[in-house]
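User: Quick one: structure for sequence A, then sequence B.

Assistant: Sequence A:
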Amino acid sequence: MAERMTFEEIERSFPGEWVVVRDFVPDDSKMIRDGVLVGHTSDRAEAHRLLGTFEGGFAIWWTGPFSHDFCGHLHLYTKHG
């Protein structure tokens, strides 16, 4: 599945899903310009399980509408081994 996609392509391709991206390139406002998609799922727990399957930085976000039980949109992380 490891395919480099732009933020807009990811949002359009996986509506209502959690997406996990690595090797991302942020813009000046820390939003993702593009990255390598490593997983997508509508299940939040499954998306978080994906995070342990690779080394290095990653971004995770929900492509669906905001809800009362989720107060974030985009999270950028650097994992240290």
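Sequence B:
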Amino acid sequence: MRIISLSKVVAAAALVAVPVVVHAQDVRTSPAQTPARLSAAQVFALADAARAKGDFATAEAAYHALESDPDPELRTEARFRLGMMLADDLHRYTDAAIAFRRILDDKPGAARVRLELARVLAMTGDMRAAEREFRAAEAAGLPPQVERMVRFYANALNARKPFGGSFEVALAPDSNINRATRSDTLGTVIGDFTLDKDAQAKSGVGLDLRGQAYWREGLEKGTDLLVRVSGGGSLYRDSAFNDISTGLQIGPQYASGKDRITLAAGPTWRWYGKSLYSLSYGGTANWQHPTGKRSQLRIEGGITHVENKRNALQVADDFTLSASLDRAFSARMGGGVQVYGFREAARDPGYSLASGGASVYVFREVGRTTLIGTAGYSHLEADARLFLYPHRRVEDRYSASLAATLRALHVGAFAPLVRVKWERNRSSIEIYDYKRVSAELGVSSAF
């Protein structure tokens, strides 16, 4: 029989300042055993009895002590019971997600655990992550009784956390922080001009910040009012290159069967350098529809009016339409593809343009690391030639990135993030032609 030192339970409990008192009737052990050592079964009994009495601190300490057991099955059982207690009794959904994720790192085919992870992710409001876990569970293969559980949880996704958010911060070395040409001259219809150094490509190390917060209010069955505030920016030592934006979106979210429709509208502000660059306001509509047990379709469209504060000729109405399909290939691997179209109708035809493109992504769980690779292509054409330039603006843009989230090094809900990005924009206008390589080294919310 596996034996666990009682001192581990006591030491773990001490971290939460809760004394452990072992009663013979709780652990069913002899007086000779009680003072020194307990079997794993006895520690489970102690933890379960404490949970039943509402003594969650002692139960948590005991489960954590069992996590150090060399038997992987005992560690898994302890983490599962801990996750269930954190979710159902203490409503600490982020901590519960961490416990379930630790199990799946070792046992990716554990369907019940993946479903519980999806459930608690939904309770935190991270619906996209919850849906991804449901697809992964289906890809792993589910027995009929578990499929019924999937349907139950999927129908319960509307019971979501009323507020929440996420945050990411990273150091970002960048070979071209202003996405500018490396040429020191600009060809025009009246000759070549010498470009100011600030208009040429500049390298630097910045601080990238991204975050969002939301609030949800139930209006009636199947309908919520959703309010989102988001922001992000790249900050540099030379503040002339700072790029900051923030936005507010408000609108209803409807659930109809397996489908979900979200409508939202609101303003967005963007600052470049030290002053306001643009003010935008408009709305979007998003439709989500499962196309099978492993895949989901999203279609989104939007209309936005953009007030450019530096050039009145660039005041425009923007129209976007995109479609994406996400699919789980297995319990630890998935991906998706997106196609989109964009139209900007500006006051000056030279600034009016149309573009379209496609992107693909693949994610893979490797141990306790999540790898995500992306690749994209887009084509852009302006309506007319600007007077100053010899050609109409025509561009082909290529991009790729590779990111890794290192969950093994997490602190609470945050884990280290490493991301490398590459861009190449080929343009008929020299000032828009650029190359860029950047990296991000920071932390992000892991769940």
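Residues 1-36 have pLDDT under 50 and may be disordered. Residues 72-88 form the longest helix (17 residues).

User: Thanks, that's what I needed.
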